[in-house]
Design brief:
The chain is α+β, with helices and mostly antiparallel strands and 180 residues long.
């Protein structure tokens, strides 16, 4: 196992695995991820590689949204990953050969009329920013051979984001007070 944490090297290997469509072998053995912060550093560097290639940010996805699971894992809130425009699939077919280890998940997608950068956003501002809601299919896809074996590996690999499909029809939400 590597003695030093090398976020750039791990991000490079994850990036190349996806570009070459070949699962990365032995990453867990060569790169020790022992904290969520380390995994997030790798994910940020991986995202920087995609952005340097001309990708643009389409939105974000949230993982581990159940508060009970968050508490069990010692998390303060849900995990977030970035979705890129080049990962959105449109049209009538899905080519599974574009992915390493694809798994489909049904999701709810909230579409926003503007970006929200304030971490202390109020419910009222959030409700006004929601342009609509639709059904989405998320294609989870790990660059790790066999898939991530830990939460840290999944975070480092941008929560195993591979692609997404949005249903073209959206429903406008009628603002009501949020309830916890």
């Amino acid at each position: 196992m590597s003695e030093e944490f090398e976020p750039n090297a791990l991000a490079d290997e994850l990036y190349l695995a996806r570009r070459q469509r070949q699962p990365a072998i032995g990453l867990a053995e060569r790169y020790s991820l022992t904290t969520l912060e380390q995994a997030q550093q790798v994910s940020e560097r991986l995202l920087a590689r995609y952005l340097a290639d001309g990708q643009t940010i389409a939105g974000s996805k949230h993982g581990l949204t159940d508060r009970r699971i968050q508490a069990a894992l010692g998390l303060d809130g849900p995990l977030m990953a970035t979705l890129l425009t080049g990962w959105q699939i449109s049209g009538g077919s899905l080519d599974s050969s574009q992915f390493l280890l694809p798994k489909l998940e049904m999701e709810v997608a909230f579409l926003f009329s503007a970006a929200i950068d304030d971490p202390e956003v109020t419910d009222a501002v959030l409700q006004q920013a929601v342009a609509g809601v639709t059904v989405a299919l998320e294609i989870c896809d790990s660059a790790y051979q066999g898939g991530p074996r830990s939460l840290f590996e999944a975070v480092a690999d941008n929560l195993s984001s591979g692609g997404f499909i949005l249903v073209s029809s959206t429903t406008r939400l009628i603002p009501k007070p949020w309830q916890n």
